[in-house]
Design a protein that fits this description.
The longest helix is centred in the first third of the chain and has 23 residues. The protein has ten helices and seven strands. It is an alpha/beta fold.
């Protein structure tokens, strides 16, 4: 177990140091321009499997640092042995992480289980980590991608076109209806979730420059909505704290990651309102505890699954 903890820490520290490097440079690694078809997200160009959780952050860093535009990735064997391409000698791989998340009861310094106000054990999530090497398609030569990959890209482009139109607005509004979300539209130029009222506020649709902006913002707030006690019961929502607090910043990190996952799933390439003001808070969260990024990824995935599992 000691060796596993040391290995986990080494991997966590590497990943978090990479993300902190971007954040301290003023770059939001999860919020970048997309070209057509990229709402498919970072994925294996052979199997079609999308990379989720912490790997969204890892691959965002790799692309930002190397200037890669493609979201297509392959293992060495897939690129060279299966697809008959070439990876030039000396090409450096990107190490992604497989996370097996295990839930524990949080304990104090005396080994006693910590409980919340209702006497329920406070949960913590620990990921046991392994690394795997992959290569961006831009690092390869003469790779002949399978026909299924082109079909996946074409399908992604079609979804994006739909979500960038009024049909996308109608779709996200139907998601709100299916989930029985209490939503209020006004001329106030703010989007937010109110935990006390269990209500989402959105500016009127006409106040957004593009339909995709409305759709992306609506989904971002929906991630916050999942944190209520009756749903995913996240501390950052149940015990709502002020802007600038660690809890607030951590919840915004969950919503940011959750929005990326939902965008990949449903083809939403628009952006929610600018969250550059949260970067300083994210830096403090990650510097205080490297496990936070991994926990945020787990909770964001949980939020995405709640929305998708309960959407017709």
């Amino acid at each position: 177990m000691k060796q596993s903890k040391e290995k986990n820490k080494k991997i966590r520290d590497r990943v978090v140091s990479e993300i902190l490097e971007l954040l301290k440079g003023g770059v939001n690694p999860w919020n970048r321009p997309w070209t057509a078809g990229q709402s498919l997200g970072d994925h294996n160009a052979y199997s079609g499997r999308c990379y989720q959780g912490i790997n969204i952050s890892i691959l965002a860093y790799a692309k930002e640092k190397n200037g890669w535009q493609s979201d297509q990735w392959l293992t060495y064997n897939q690129a060279v042995k299966v697809l008959k391409g070439v990876i030039p000698k000396g090409t450096k791989s990107t190490r992604i992480v497989f996370v097996k998340t295990i839930e524990f009861n949080k304990k104090d310094d005396d080994g006693r289980v910590v409980t919340d106000d209702d006497g329920k054990p406070v949960k913590i999530y620990v990921g046991y980590l392994n690394e795997f090497s992959i290569f961006n398609i831009e690092q390869t030569e003469n790779v002949k991608l399978p026909k299924a990959e082109q079909k996946r890209i074409e399908a992604a482009i079609a979804r994006e076109k739909l979500m960038q139109s009024d049909a996308g607005v109608q779709w996200v509004d139907s998601v709100y209806t299916n989930l029985d979300v209490d939503v209020k539209h006004t001329t106030e130029s703010k989007a937010y979730y109110s935990p006390g009222k269990d209500m989402i506020h959105l500016p009127n649709y006409s106040m957004f420059k593009k339909p995709s902006g409305y759709t992306a913002t609506a989904l971002h707030e929906l991630v916050h909505w999942t944190g209520a006690e009756s749903r995913n019961n996240r501390p950052g929502i149940v015990k709502f704290e002020y802007f600038g607090s660690r809890s607030y910043a951590f919840e915004e990190l969950i919503a940011e990651l959750g929005s990326v996952m939902l965008g990949q799933k449903y083809g939403i390439s628009g952006k929610a309102e600018n969250h550059a003001s949260y970067i300083d808070g994210w830096i403090k969260v990650l510097e205080s505890d490297s496990q936070s990024l991994f926990e945020a990824g787990h909770l964001a995935k949980q939020a995405m699954e709640y929305i998708s599992d309960n959407t017709a």
